[in-house]
Amino acid sequence: MHALIPLLVTISLPSVLSLSLYVDTSCSSKKGWSDYYSETQNFAKRASVRMSSSSDTDFKNVFKRIFKVEPGSSEAFNNVVGILKAVADLTATSDLKNSDIRLFCDNDKRWTQIQGGYHDPTTEMVERDTPSCQRQPSALGRTYSRKSKPPQNPNDPRAGHNPNRISVSICDLTFARPSKDGEPAWLKDDLVKPDLQNTFLDTFDDMISVTILHELVHAVSYSPAESKVIILDVPTKESAYGWENVFAKSAEDSLKNAENYMYTGLWAVLADMGYTLPRIKESDDQIVKNALEERAKEGWLYHYADGTKRALEVVARRFIS
Ligand SMILES: [Zn+2]
Prior knowledge:
Mean pLDDT: 87
CATH architecture of the largest domain: 3-Layer(aba) Sandwich
CATH class of the largest domain: Alpha Beta
Number of strands: 12
Structural class: alpha/beta
Helix content: 25-40%
Number of helices: 13
Low-confidence stretches: 1-9, 306-321
Number of domains: 2
CATH topology of the largest domain: Collagenase (Catalytic Domain)
Strand content: 5-15%
Largest sheet: 5 strands, mixed
Order of helices and strands: EHHHHEEEEEEEHHHEEHHHHEHEH
Bound molecules: zinc ion
CATH superfamily of the largest domain: Collagenase (Catalytic Domain)
């Protein structure tokens, strides 16, 4: 029961400035890396641009379905734009020690086991639990954050490291989910043909770029003041992922759940390709409303290139007959 708990539909996020990103060679040496990473940034960029557009009512509706709050100028809406913009605006740096976020594709091999935990000598971070890529079963990715006080001794290996550093791992499991041609999928070449009409959103879950986006949403939500990442996987790991879970979440959980932001980015680029959630009109017959609502929940892609009315009439016939 939530009745006794004040319902907070806003989250307290740091005012995100431009954050720097160090990309380790374990990522940049992967075949196709720059394509996967630009796709990630494009998801974030297109979402923040679409949300900031006053005329993009269709995407505002997608936002509303994902976050269950009214689009516009609410704090919650601005927070979502801010997070996606922060991912889009990450600036590359080769300065590991000063970087805010460090991205690795080493399957967490940089961590070595020490008494009572694990130590990463590359970023000088310590974790108690087994690194996520090394667990059985492996995660797809993981964002590590732990506030670290700058050491007094300048010869300490931790000296000079950004005290608010975040490290992100994209696990081998993410790179091991090939599309039909044997390479990991990305939208531009692999998934646009011949037609995505009536495709499920799940089709895109295996893309490397969506996992990178999911992790970077965690990473940019780090609050130095609170020494923690604000956007997590909520309410539990089991129910955080996948469109149906995202669609079913309360406003409070949606705003705190990385996967909701990831799907916002994905929908923004699908919108560029002409696809969106099924549109439900007040005047629709209830049987049509129910059917379209079910399809929205299941994540069906709808193409409305010839306008709304005709497409809905076709659907109506399909369900009424
Ligand atoms: Zn996560």
